[in-house]
Structures are given as structure tokens and as C-alpha cells.
């Protein structure tokens, strides 16, 4: 996408809902999908005299994410009250972090096509989610199940220049938080929320244009489309001399446009101040070190390793590292089989197809990585052919038996014994004198017929290489 | 001295409906209190970090264990509700 | 048994040894409330289940179960502490009908120790006021002289105690609300170290200053009550994980070598002559039992009231944002008179239900935190607060306990000062600095004014060193027995 004389400046604020059992400051459940106001407590309803107490797992998840994003972790971070009135905000303030966030100054690396990008992470701070209001004409209803669910808000630098880059950044972020096990990354359910800050300026200008925030984007595709629309809208404004207002706009996917969220509220004055109900969060270096050593290998690093030390093509490496569980599965299979490429192929084709068709998570796959590896070894040792392996795999999927027993029970072992195959070929040649004559007169196309017949006679178990070799010899009358 | 506009803006921020008489009284009283506060401007506070919690208290975090509360009892105090939801006038 | 003048330890002992039943004790005080509280107005709600709770204590004793140190002791609880199933109002229209589905941790702990909640006592709306005149339930009268105020927000608790309507009472103290009414009513009252007692379930005024504490007729009674109330609470991140000593059992017999710090800034000409005289009498009595007076200096205390009002109102403006009429509390009549927008919905709920003093403080706090003023007000106040706290900590290198007046003058007349809030604020000079520094502070009755109104002195110690305060309080109690005098007509 080209913007002629203009350049876009894009920054993303991603809210990651941390997958804890209970809320960030109280013990009510943080689970998704409960009945109306089922997951509430005196604390999350903001009842008089109730107090927040910080959830240790929310801290752990935040530190883990910060480290994965190469951030500096503050040993002394402070919770502050962000004050505004809204019916789904129970206390009249949201507990967040302001000038001393838990994570600062990191970066995220990812690919846009074949090009590697590195975008800085300005900060990542912990906060509580608000509840949800639904509007019904002459009244509104408030559900506080979500109020107090822990969030980590990750703020990028304003350094992205295209809608594609922003979408890839968001995709990579989703991959990272899923790898870390801190968030399920579900955009539709809102466990990952993405606000985009967009401005445009003339090429070469150093001064940034007026920033517009776009909210309400619930898929990666829409991130791209919403930003694309917004850039064009702002360029049009510039071209026609219309002023760009600093505001929040909502994206409407049905109309594919953004529209102003006009609010009668005056300019916000959040009156941040340190929350006296919570002590500053103090983290020891040993705790941070421990979190760092427990970090899993991140997707981009892992993909690089798959290419460099396992010799996978870039495409395979990227595909296999989309999800941590798939990459884990691959590593077990590759190591046990000693054949990374064959493991990658089987996972990316047959296994993925079966998993998708049956909507099964790879963690519950009836074919374990170990069994798959054993099967690949049977192929590599020549015990079974690649073709027979398809049958064996299907059998493994339905019966969960190990490949060696399936091969044994069904007698699927490949026949490499030349004398046995020679006998079959002799019998076939005797039964088909006309075809033999045809071949010998130069019509070599009939060769395929003999291969088919031999394989059929061997019930598919003859080694195709051996069959080819022997047939050529015998047909030529050698 | 605070202006009437200052005070009105604060009332708006604090979401308090005040009568003209209340506004006038608060304008005077706040001005007096703030004037009184001016004296601490003399105290040298360079490089002093503000104190919030005055005593040394060891941090304790909460284990991530979910507990169930009776949402019915928490909804009993609602001025208005619909089913199990809090009900308010339209907010958009 | 003469219940009106019995200590709580002797009541608990009598109940445990079945000399008297918990039901009889509770009935006695309920009858007194019925008889006397019409003119004093100290209770705003009575616990309908008080006798039932007392009966269950008796039952446990009959069954040979062990009961706590407060077995069968009736307590009056300030209506700022949430009590499950019992209306809790903060004496505000905004919570007039609020019945909490949970109790404050302090209330749970008192009950666990065997105490029986008699009812809820009056306070200034949201504990904001310096005269106990801002309650929606009307002002509380001073038992010693009905035309005088009991002063500040735990007034109901102090008066209930002074009138012998309860042998023990619980108050809260943000800038002096336990110590001032204790002094004006001739009873003992301690604000413990910040973090000693859980704040969970106590309707917040200013979170970094608030602490609950006991009020009673003797040093030991206060100590026993505080022992039951204290300790780490998993529901309050600012409660301290520190051991709770048995103060009541460790009281010193004499004060030999104990250094009593006297801040020279506290003894100025501005002191009322009665207050000055009583304070000097207290110092002399302590010297007589071996204590050594030491002059100390706290030059920053002159700023305490200014800092206090900035910090307390800022925190309060935020703590009171939750009273919005959405989930609980007062809601204006929008059926009759619909709101034009959401802003009006809030402004009417809050504007109609908060009283003048509360609105004034919310306004001041909102202003102090607003954009462009934060650094000059809230931040600056926090910085000076640190300097002031450190000044106290340094002073405690030279002395063990600091002694000062509680207020500049004895109780004042109802309505006398409400028109001049700034003057009322200055009365808080001795008590607010204690809260700012997080120190424990206690008011101990020592003498009387010429008009016969009680006057106490304030004792302060290092963080978590309540023991020294109780030691000195006991010495003053032995010397003056000022808490034993009962007001006329009681």
C-alpha cells in the first residue's frame, strides 16, 4: 500500500488478559463465560471498606512477559489510581500503574514477509479490567464479572509504518503470550485487545501528526483494515485541509470504516496518584533471575534454531513455531526419529489434517510424537514404504497402537527379498505374454502395468525400488 | 484566590451537583485552606520522595486461588437491577 | 456485680466462671442504652441479635468450650466498621440503608475473642468533621455537659463509654478521632501504629492515615482490646506481619530511666491554660515515678495540619468516588425527574446525598489531585510528610515516649466552630502529626478544666512500640485515677 507523499506512524497498545484463576486484587474467579455477575465479590463490586490484595501469579505472568519482550523489570513499581466515573468502573478509579510500571524499555522482533523488524516496547504495566455495560435504549445493564481481571497493557513505540507491520507485530505478540502460557490470545473473547494509535505526516517531516486512537478491533485482519482505512481518512483530511481531531474512534468491520466515538465528557483529568491501599511492588533480583531462567524459548528464536541446526526450510520453521505445543511435539519427534525434515512433513500434512478434522488439540493427539518418530524410523530403515506408512498412520490415529505392532499384526513389512519378488515377476510375465512382447517391441509405457501387477501381487509390500530394478532386468530378458 | 469557574470545574470533575450558595461557600473556604498550605512551599524538599505508607510493612501477595461469593447477596444492595445485572439510566 | 464500673477483664472472668451470664451483661447495657441514650444520641443502630450472640457465648461456656479474652464483653462499634447483616451508614444519607454482606476484620476478631456487638455508634459523616455535628442522625451530646461537643468523629463511641452504655468501644482515627473524643470524654483511647490493625471492612476516609483502635476505662482494658484486634490480615495488604505482644501482661511497675520527650513546639502560649496546667501535672507525676523529661524539637510539626488536610482530602476524594448510586447506596429519583446525561446521574446522586463538610473535602481533594496542581499540593505534602516522619524517628533516638496535649483547648460548644472550618482544623495540630508519621498515639485522662470538663494528654512512641505507651499510661492512671470519675446523672 502506498500513501504517495505521506507516511504513517503507528503505535499499538495491546491489553493482554492474564490467565489467572482469580482476579488481580481479589479472590473471585477470573474465568470467562460465567453467568451474569456470577464472578463478583465485595472487593470487585467496590463495596465500602474493601481493599485490594495483589495476586502473586499476576505478578509472575507480568514479569515473565516483560522478560520475553526484553524489558527491564522494575524492582520497585507502584500501583496508582486512574480516576474517572463510568458505571462499569466500580470504585470510581481503576488500579493501574502510571509513572513506575513493572516493565520498561524492551523490544519485539518479527517478520513482515521476509524482512525482519524490531519494534520497541516502551512499557508494560499491570492493571485491573473494568466490567461490561450493555445498552438497551432507555437503560443500561452492568455486569462486573470482568471487573478486576488482571491485564498487562503493552505499549509499543510509535515506530510502525504500515498496516501489515502493525498486524504482524500483533500476531507475534499473540504468539509470545501463548508461548509463555500467560494468555490464550483470543481476540474474539477479548482476552487480547488491541488499540491502534495512528497519525500521518508528509514524507520527510519530523513533526508527528495528530494522533487518533482506534478501538474495538477484534481480529488481526481488522487491525490491518482499520489502520488502512484510518490512514487514508487522515490523508484525505490533509488533502482537503480538514483538521484531524485528537480523538478515539471505533472500527466498524461491517462498513469497514472508523467513526468518531463522540463523548460529552470533558477532557479527561485522571488525577493519578499512588494507591495507598497497596504497597509498592518490590521484586528481588533473585526472583527476576529465577523467572528469566524459567522462560521457554521464544517462537522467533526457536524458528531460527530449527533452520540453523535442524536444517528446516524457513517456511517449515515458521509454521511449526506458530504454537508452542506444535513446536514441542516436533522437537520430540525430530529427536527421536533423527529425521527433522520427515518429522516436519508428517506433522504439517497428515497430523495437522487429522487434528483439524477432528478439532483435537495437539496435546491430546492419539498419535504421540514418540510413535510418529518410530514410524518415521520404520520408513527410514526400509521396513515399510512411504505409501504403507500412510496406512500405518491412519491405523495409529484410530487405534492408538504403536507402529511396529500395527506393521506386524497386519503383515505390512516391506518385501526386499529379491528372490520372492523375482518369483512374483516370473509368474506375472508368464501370465501376460502379450504385454511382455509389447514392451520388448519398444512400447515401454506398459512398464507401469507390470509395476502395478507386482505391487498388487505383493499386497503393496514389495519395495518399489527393488520391483523397478528387477522388472527392468527381467523384461529386457537379461 | 480560586475563581468561581475553578470551583465549578472541580465540582464537575468530582461529579457533585452544588447549589450556588454551596459553590460560593466552598470557593471561600478552599481559598483559605490553600492559602494556608502556601507556607509549606518554603520547606526544601529537593530529592525527597513522597511518603505514602508511613510504616515499614513487608509486602504480602495473595496466592492465586479462586473463592466463591454469593452474588445474590452482593446484588441485594443494588438501587435497581434487572435479573442479576445492575441497572442504570442509559450511558451512551 | 457492679457492671458500670467493672473492667472488661473482670467482666470476661465473671462470665467465664459463670458468676454472671453473658446474656445478663448484655441485657444490663441494652437497658442502660434504652434509658439514657435518648438524650446523648450515641447509638445509631442496635444489634438486634446481641442477646442471641451473648447466649451462644453462654452455651459455649456451659459446654466447656474455651472462649476468648473478651468472653461476653459488650462493645459499641463506630458506624464506620462494616457489620454483616447490621446496617452500616457512616452516618451519611448516601449509605442510609446499606446492610453489608461482610464484616470488618476487626469486628470478626472481636467476635472471635468472645465480644458481643451492642450496636453502632454515631460519627461525623464519613468521619469528616471536627465536632461530631455532621451526622445525618443528629449531633452527639457530651455526657459531661450536654451543651458541649464530644469532638470529632468517634464521638458516639466515646460518649457511649463515658455514659457507661458500654464497657468498651471501637473507634477509628484518621487525624485524632479516637484521641480527641477520648480526651473530651475522660476515657482512654489508642490509635495503634499504622498497619497494626486491619483496615478491611472499615469505610475508608484516608487510606494512609486511617487506623481503628479501642476506647475503654483503663489502660489494661485498652491493651486487652487491642490485643484482640491486632494482627496481619490477608485481606489488607497494608496490615503488618509483626508479632502482637501481650501488652496487658507486660506493664512496667515503674518508669525508672524512661525518657519522656517534650516537643518544645507543642508548649506554646496558644495553649488553653487548663490544658497547659493538666499537661504539666502529668509530667510531674511521671517524674515522681522515675521518668526523665527530655526536651526535643520537631520544627516541622507546624506544617502538620496543612499537610494533613491536603493528604486526607485527596485520598478521601478518591475513596468516596465509589458512592455513585450504581451498585449500592442512595439514588436520586430519576423516574420523576430524568437525568439529561450520565454526568447528571452521578452529580445528583452524590450532590443530594453527601453533606456539606464531605462535599467540601471532596472538592479540596479533587482540586489538589487535578492536572497542574498535583506537584504543588499532593506531591509536596507527601514530601514534607516524609521529612516530618523522619524528624519523629530521629526524636525517638533521644526519648522513648513523647508526651503532648491532645488538643489546644477542652471541648467547645455545639455550633461554636462549625462556621469556621480553618479554626476547627487547627485544633487537630497535636493529633494529625501522629497519623502522618504512622506512630501509635494514645489519649490518657489526667484532669479536668475549671468548668469540670475532662482533659487528657497524648502519648506517642516508635512504630509498633505500643508497650511503652501502655507503660506510661498505666503510671498516669495510677497517679490520677481520672478515668474513674463518672459524669453527673450517670
What is the strand and helix layout of this fold?
The complex is a heterotrimer of chains A (478), B (92) and C (490).
Chain A: E1 6-17, H1 56-68, E2 72-73, E3 76-77, E4 79-83, E5 93-97, E6 103-112, E7 115-128, E8 132-135, E9 140-143, E10 150-156, H2 163-180, E11 192-202, E12 212-217, H3 220-240, E13 248-252, E14 257-260, E15 273-274, E16 281-282, H4 285-293, H5 299-308, H6 314-320, H7 324-337, H8 340-357, H9 369-380, H10 386-399, H11 403-410, H12 418-431, H13 433-440, H14 447-457, H15 464-475
Parallel strand pairs in A: 12-13
Antiparallel strand pairs in A: 1-10, 1-11, 2-6, 3-16, 4-5, 4-15, 6-7, 7-10, 8-9, 11-12, 13-14
Helix pairs in contact in A: 2-3, 5-6, 7-8, 7-9, 9-10, 12-14, 12-15, 14-15
Chain B: H1 4-13, H2 20-37, H3 71-75, E1 81-82, E2 85-88
Chain C: H1 8-16, H2 22-40, E1 43-46, H3 50-62, E2 74-78, H4 105-112, E3 116-121, H5 155-162, E4 168-173, H6 179-185, E5 188-191, E6 211-216, H7 219-229, E7 259-263, H8 273-288, E8 292-296, H9 304-319, H10 342-353, H11 356-369, H12 375-395, E9 401-405, H13 421-426, H14 429-437, E10 441-448, E11 454-461, H15 466-480
Parallel strand pairs in C: 2-3, 2-4, 7-8, 7-9
Antiparallel strand pairs in C: 1-3, 4-6, 5-6, 5-10, 9-11, 10-11
Helix pairs in contact in C: 2-3, 9-11, 9-12, 9-14
Give a written overview of the molecule.
With 478 residues, chain A is α+β, with helices and mostly antiparallel strands. In chain A, 40% of the residues lie in helices and 20% in strands. Chain A folds into three domains: 283 residues, no CATH class; 106 residues, no CATH class; 58 residues, Arc Repressor Mutant, subunit A (Orthogonal Bundle), CATH 1.10.10. The termini of chain A are far apart. Chain B is mostly helical and 92 residues long. Chain B has a domain of 41 residues: Histone, subunit A. In chain B, 36% of the residues lie in helices and 7% in strands. Chain B contains three helices and two strands. In chain B, strand 1 and strand 2 form a beta hairpin. Chain B is flat. The relative contact order of chain B is 0.07. By secondary structure, chain C is of the alpha/beta class. Chain C has a domain of 255 residues: Amidase signature (AS) enzymes (Alpha-Beta Complex). Chain C is 38% helix and 13% strand. In chain C, strand 7, helix 8 and strand 8 form a beta-alpha-beta unit. In chain C, helix 9 packs across helix 12. The two termini of chain C are 17 Å apart. Classes of the chains: A alpha+beta (478), B mainly alpha (92), C alpha/beta (490). The interface between B and C is large, with 53 and 75 residues. Strand 9 of chain A pairs antiparallel with strand 2 of chain B.
Amino acid at each position: 500500500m502506498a500513501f504517495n507523499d505521506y507516511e504513517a506512524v503507528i503505535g499499538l497498545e495491546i491489553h493482554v488478559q492474564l490467565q489467572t484463576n482469580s482476579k488481580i486484587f481479589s479472590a473471585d474467579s477470573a474465568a470467562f463465560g460465567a453467568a451474569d455477575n456470577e464472578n463478583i465479590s465485595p472487593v470487585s463490586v467496590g463495596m465500602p471498606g474493601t481493599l485490594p490484595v495483589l495476586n502473586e501469579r499476576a505478578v509472575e505472568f507480568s514479569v515473565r512477559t516483560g522478560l520475553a519482550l526484553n524489558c527491564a523489570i522494575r524492582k520497585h513499581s507502584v500501583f496508582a489510581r486512574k480516576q474517572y466515573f463510568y458505571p462499569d468502573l466500580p470504585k470510581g478509579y481503576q488500579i493501574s500503574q502510571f509513572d513506575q510500571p513493572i516493565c520498561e524499555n524492551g523490544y519485539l522482533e518479527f517478520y513482515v514477509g521476509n524482512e525482519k523488524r524490531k519494534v520497541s516496547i516502551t512499557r508494560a504495566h499491570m492493571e485491573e479490567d473494568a466490567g461490561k455495560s450493555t445498552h438497551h435504549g432507555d437503560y443500561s445493564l452492568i455486569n462486573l464479572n470482568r471487573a478486576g481481571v488482571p491485564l498487562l497493557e503493552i505499549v509499543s513505540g510509535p515506530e510502525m509504518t504500515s498496516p501489515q507491520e502493525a498486524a504482524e507485530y500483533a500476531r507475534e505478540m499473540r504468539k509470545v503470550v501463548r508461548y509463555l502460557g500467560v494468555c490464550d490470545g483470543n481476540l474474539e473473547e477479548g482476552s487480547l485487545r488491541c488499540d491502534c494509535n495512528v497519525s500521518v505526516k508528509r514524507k520527510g517531516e519530523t513533526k508527528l501528526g495528530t494522533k487518533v486512537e482506534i478501538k474495538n478491533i477484534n481480529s488481526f485482519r481488522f487491525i490491518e483494515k482499520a489502520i488502512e482505512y484510518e490512514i487514508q481518512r487522515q490523508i484525505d483530511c490533509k488533502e482537503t485541509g480538514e483538521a484531524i481531531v485528537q480523538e478515539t474512534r471505533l472500527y466498524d468491520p461491517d462498513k469497514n470504516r472508523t467513526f468518531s466515538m463522540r463523548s460529552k465528557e470533558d477532557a479527561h483529568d485522571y488525577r493519578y496518584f499512588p494507591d495507598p491501599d497497596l504497597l509498592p511492588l518490590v521484586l528481588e533480583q533473585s526472583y527476576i533471575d529465577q523467572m528469566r531462567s524459567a522462560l521457554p524459548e521464544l517462537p522467533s528464536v526457536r524458528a531460527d534454531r530449527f533452520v540453523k541446526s535442524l536444517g528446516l526450510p524457513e517456511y517449515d520453521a515458521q509454521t511449526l513455531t506458530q504454537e508452542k505445543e506444535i513446536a514441542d511435539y516436533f522437537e520430540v519427534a525430530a529427536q527421536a526419529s533423527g529425521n527433522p525434515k520427515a518429522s516436519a512433513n508428517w506433522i504439517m500434512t497428515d497430523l495437522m489434517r487429522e487434528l483439524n478434522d477432528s478439532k483435537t488439540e495437539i496435546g491430546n493427539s492419539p498419535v504421540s510424537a514418540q510413535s510418529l518418530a518410530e514410524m518415521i524410523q520404520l520408513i527410514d530403515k526400509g521396513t515399510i514404504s512411504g505409501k504403507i506408512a500412510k496406512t500405518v498412520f491412519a491405523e495409529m490415529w484410530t487405534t492408538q497402537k504403536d507402529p511396529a505392532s500395527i506393521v506386524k499384526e497386519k503383515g505390512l513389512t516391506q518385501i526386499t527379498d529379491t528372490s520372492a519378488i523375482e518369483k512374483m515377476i516370473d509368474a506375472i510375465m508368464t501370465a501376460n505374454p502379450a504385454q511382455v512382447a509389447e514392451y520388448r517391441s519398444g512400447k515401454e509405457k506398459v512398464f507401469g502395468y507390470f509395476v502395478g501387477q507386482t505391487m498388487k501381487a505383493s499386497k503393496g509390500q514389495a519395495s518399489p525400488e527393488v520391483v523397478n530394478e528387477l522388472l527392468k532386468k527381467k523384461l529386457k530378458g537379461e | 484566590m480560586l475563581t468561581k469557574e475553578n470551583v465549578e470545574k472541580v465540582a464537575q470533575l468530582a461529579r457533585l451537583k452544588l447549589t450556588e450558595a454551596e459553590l460560593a461557600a466552598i470557593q471561600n473556604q478552599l481559598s483559605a485552606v490553600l492559602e494556608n498550605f502556601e507556607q509549606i512551599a518554603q520547606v526544601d524538599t529537593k530529592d525527597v520522595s513522597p511518603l505514602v505508607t508511613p510504616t515499614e510493612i513487608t509486602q504480602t501477595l495473595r496466592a492465586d486461588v479462586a473463592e466463591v461469593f454469593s452474588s445474590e447477596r452482593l446484588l441485594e444492595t443494588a438501587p435497581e437491577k434487572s435479573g442479576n445485572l445492575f441497572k442504570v439510566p442509559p450511558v451512551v | 456485680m457492679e457492671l458500670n464500673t467493672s473492667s472488661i477483664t473482670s467482666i470476661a472472668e465473671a462470665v467465664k466462671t459463670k458468676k454472671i451470664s453473658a446474656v445478663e451483661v448484655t441485657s444490663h447495657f441494652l437497658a442502660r442504652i434504652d434509658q439514657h441514650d435518648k438524650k446523648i444520641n450515641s447509638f445509631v443502630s442496635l444489634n438486634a441479635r446481641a442477646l442471641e450472640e451473648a447466649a451462644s457465648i453462654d452455651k459455649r461456656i456451659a459446654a466447656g468450650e474455651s472462649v476468648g479474652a473478651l468472653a461476653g464483653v459488650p462493645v459499641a462499634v463506630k458506624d464506620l466498621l462494616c457489620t454483616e447483616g447490621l446496617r452500616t451508614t457512616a452516618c451519611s444519607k448516601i449509605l442510609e440503608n446499606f446492610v453489608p454482606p461482610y464484616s470488618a476484620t476487626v469486628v470478626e476478631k472481636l467476635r472471635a475473642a468472645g465480644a458481643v456487638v451492642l450496636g453502632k455508634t454515631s460519627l461525623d459523616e464519613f468521619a469528616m468533621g471536627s465536632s461530631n455535628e455532621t451526622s445525618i442522625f443528629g449531633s452527639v451530646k457530651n455526657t459531661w455537659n450536654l451543651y458541649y461537643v464530644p469532638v470529632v468523629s468517634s464521638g458516639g463511641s466515646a460518649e457511649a463509654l463515658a455514659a457507661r452504655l458500654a464497657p468498651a468501644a471501637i473507634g477509628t482515627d484518621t487525624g485524632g478521632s479516637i484521641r480527641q473524643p477520648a480526651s473530651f470524654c475522660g476515657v482512654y483511647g489508642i490509635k495503634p501504629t499504622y498497619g497494626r490493625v486491619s483496615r478491611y471492612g472499615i469505610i475508608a476516609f484516608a487510606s494512609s492515615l486511617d487506623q481503628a483502635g479501642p476506647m475503654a476505662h483503663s489502660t489494661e482494658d485498652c491493651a486487652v482490646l487491642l490485643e484482640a484486634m491486632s494482627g496481619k490480615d490477608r485481606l489488607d495488604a497494608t496490615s503488618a506481619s509483626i508479632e502482637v505482644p501481650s501488652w496487658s501482661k507486660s506493664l512496667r511497675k515503674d518508669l525508672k530511666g524512661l525518657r519522656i520527650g517534650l516537643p518544645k513546639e507543642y508548649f506554646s502560649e496558644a495553649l488553653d491554660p487548663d490544658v497547659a496546667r493538666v499537661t504539666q501535672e502529668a509530667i510531674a507525676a511521671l517524674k515522681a515515678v522515675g521518668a526523665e523529661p527530655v526536651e526535643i524539637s520537631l520544627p516541622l510539626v507546624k506544617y502538620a495540619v496543612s499537610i494533613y488536610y491536603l493528604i486526607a482530602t485527596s485520598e478521601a476524594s478518591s475513596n468516596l468516588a465509589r458512592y455513585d448510586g450504581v451498585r449500592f447506596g442512595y439514588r436520586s429519583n430519576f423516574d420523576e425527574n430524568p437525568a439529561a446525561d450520565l454526568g447528571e446521574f452521578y452529580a445528583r446522586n452524590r450532590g443530594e446525598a453527601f453533606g456539606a463538610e464531605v462535599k467540601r473535602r471532596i472538592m479540596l481533594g479533587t482540586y489538589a489531585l487535578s492536572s497542574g496542581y498535583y506537584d504543588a499540593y499532593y506531591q509536596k505534602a507527601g514530601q514534607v510528610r516524609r521529612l516530618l516522619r523522619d524528624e519523629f524517628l530521629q526524636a525517638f533516638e533521644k526519648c522513648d515516649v513523647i508526651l503532648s496535649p491532645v488538643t489546644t483547648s477542652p471541648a467547645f460548644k455545639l455550633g461554636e466552630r462549625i462556621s469556621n472550618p480553618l479554626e476547627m482544623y487547627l485544633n487537630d495540630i497535636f493529633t494529625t502529626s501522629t497519623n502522618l508519621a504512622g506512630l501509635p498515639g494514645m489519649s490518657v485522662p489526667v484532669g479536668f478544666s475549671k468548668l469540670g470538663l475532662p482533659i487528657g494528654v497524648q502519648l506517642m512512641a516508635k512504630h509498633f512500640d505500643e508497650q511503652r505507651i501502655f507503660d506510661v499510661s498505666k503510671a498516669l492512671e495510677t497517679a490520677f485515677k481520672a478515668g474513674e470519675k463518672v459524669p453527673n446523672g450517670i
